[in-house]
Description:
This protein is mostly beta strands and 164 residues long. The chain has strands spanning 3-7, 10-14, 19-23, 32-35, 38-42, 48-49, 55-66, 70-76, 81-87, 90-101, 104-107. Strands 3, 4, 7, 10 and 11 form a five-stranded antiparallel β-sheet that branches. It has a four-stranded antiparallel β-sheet with strand order 2-1-5-6, with no helix packed on it.
Amino acid sequence: MYAVIRAGGKQYRVAPGDVVRVESVVPDGDGNVQFGDVLAISGSEGQIGKPESEALVTGQVLEQGRGAKILVFHYKRKKQYKKLRGHRQGYTSVRINEISYGGESFKAPALPKKEAKAEKTVAPVEKTGPRSQGKAVKAAAPAPTKKASSKKPAAKKAASKKKK
């Protein structure tokens, strides 16, 4: 069972349990979102049709954020005109919990609860040896490497004047 929904001017094919990134939407007080604009529903026996009755897709908001930066560069040659703008599009990650259509409800399987991980404790490592003399020694930072010189070699001096 899946549905095609419209959110933020784009269409998404979703099934119960899917996680989709849609344009920014405002969740309810309990963190749920309802998509009422359902364009198509897969029915029984693999049939796809437009929902005649009211269909509803509900999901739970997992996170909200902003995508990667997109640079928009305007340029006109020979006119000394350049303009650079950046843009980050907002998104909302939604896990589809339920698709209800025609009195039927298709729900996503419940997620397993996460167990708290035990914190790892690491004892500090002390180096001992002939140089440390029983004291803890910190690892030295690598020495900076010399870069190739970008200077041109010096010009050769003119030969001494020839003797007459």
